[in-house]
Specification:
Blueprint: E1 27-36, E2 44-49, E3 52-57, E4 68-71, E5 82-85, E6 90-91, E7 96-105, H1 106-119, H2 132-138
Antiparallel strand pairs: 1-2, 1-7, 2-3, 3-5, 3-6, 4-5
Length: 142
Amino acid sequence: MGYDDGWDDYNWDDDYDWYQDDDLSSSSGVSVLLVDPPDGIGRHPAIRVGEYLFLTTSQTKRRGESGYVELPQGEGGLERTSFVNLNKKFDYNSCNTICEIGELSLELWNEISTVLERYHPDIDLDNLSLDEDFDDYNDWDW
């Protein structure tokens, strides 16, 4: 539906051993998810930033384009080099989440958050909880 890229050709039903980064100290806590957005473009990997999703594309023509940040192959569990589109955000609750693929590295999250501050100043990145489960754990009354 007007959003043509190589993710449409990928067979997400194949058995695939997702890349797992065992070095959790360099993990940002920002999830890479496989989602189905409401506008009919089909399954796409996306990153979750708070209550928003930003879709990725595998089109290499996006390299260096304003509002796109390159995610190298293996980053966040992605099986190919991708480009996260920070120009358009989706409400997390409006999308169907299929599964979690992985997490972004802290280094890449720092690069993405710098671009997000420019494009979406309405997202409060300073108070963004990157690990909601950790916050839930700390709220327990022991």
